[in-house]
Design a protein that fits this description.
single chain; mainly alpha; Alpha-lytic protease prodomain-like; Alpha-Beta Plaits; 3-stranded mixed sheet; 3 strands; elongated
Length: about 300
């Protein structure tokens, strides 16, 4: 039995959103480098390097997202959805590395804080909040792991620029240069905590862990409620990209069934699984007393015991 996902309509929009964020960040990163040089602000230069890392990872996500929408081939039978997951993983790692770098720059400044040119900082910070805020807003509607990780990139940048703006305005009136490293450390630690969570979640999907424990239990219950199903085993639920899930299961029947009953059972299974919007399902029915082909005892002695039902 095969069911095809309902996510296709969102595929093109997520790559176009990521493309928009890429060009916005790319142009702004160039402006930042020039602005950092003109204002002689090491903080803005550091943020420019951080934004450059973001731009590169957004570009990578955009490219992998586009590749991920290609049709399945004979070699890659599930298609290329997992490339988007790979992009999310790489982005997460880049963001963690970038955050660690920001901390390594900010912490020493607690001991020797420097005064920047505040007027230039204020102007660039306002621009930074607007540009990154707009890009984050664009990606906010996304549901893929890729977009979620990128959204954190952009939220981090926006918060960073809010911090720069607050510090620049304060420094304009008070000589408290230590505020700059304090704020950057605060927001970097906050984002780092959230991104590490996403990286762990993405790694779990990479290792084909169950994407949702509650859904896993509900699917088992739904299949057990199908008529004539005595027990279920070899239930595997995993995800292609965090959105599109794949299910395989063996259903043990308590009666021998004819073709008509089998059709009715398949229809029941379809109805029970419909609410879960699974992208691919493979369900196997086992008749009373029939050995399971996938159990170790029978794996080698009976390689073709009974056919898969699709």
């Amino acid at each position: 039995m095969h069911q095809h996902g309902h996510h296709e309509h969102g595929q093109e929009t997520d790559t176009s959103r990521i493309g928009f964020a890429f060009w916005l960040n790319f142009v702004f990163t160039i402006i930042e480098f020039i602005g950092g040089w003109l204002t002689n602000s090491v903080a803005i230069m550091a943020d420019a390097v951080h934004d450059l890392g973001d731009t590169l990872s957004i570009g990578l996500a955009w490219y992998l997202g586009k590749l991920g929408h290609q049709k399945a081939t004979h070699k890659y039978t599930y298609g290329f959805k997992r490339l988007s997951l790979l992009g999310a993983m790489i982005n997460g790692v880049i963001l963690v590395a970038g955050s660690v770098w920001v901390l390594s720059e900010a912490i020493p400044r607690l001991l020797a804080p420097e005064m920047p040119v505040t007027e230039g900082m204020i102007g660039l910070a306002i621009l930074g909040v607007l540009v990154n805020g707009l890009a984050a807003y664009k990606l906010h509607g996304g549901h893929s792991m890729n977009e979620k990780v990128l959204n954190w990139h952009l939220i981090e940048d926006t918060m960073g620029w809010v911090a720069v703006l607050i510090v620049a305005i304060t420094l304009h009136f008070f000589h408290w240069p230590i505020l700059d490293p304090l704020l950057s450390i605060g927001f970097t630690l906050f984002i780092l905590f959230n991104v590490v969570r996403y990286v762990i979640q993405t790694m779990k999907l990479f290792l084909q862990g169950v994407p949702d424990d509650v859904e896993h239990k509900e699917i088992k219950q739904a299949l057990l409620s199908v008529e004539h199903v005595e027990e279920i085993h070899h239930v595997h639920l995993w995800s292609l990209d965090g959105e599109q899930h794949v299910l395989t299961a063996h259903l043990v029947l308590n009666v021998s069934v004819d073709a008509q009953t089998l059709k009715a059972l398949k229809q029941q299974v379809n109805e029970k699984l419909a609410p879960f919007h699974l992208s691919h399902t493979t369900i196997e029915f086992e008749l009373p007393g029939e050995p399971c082909r996938d159990d170790d005892d029978h794996l080698h002695s009976h390689p073709h015991n009974h056919p898969h039902v699709h």
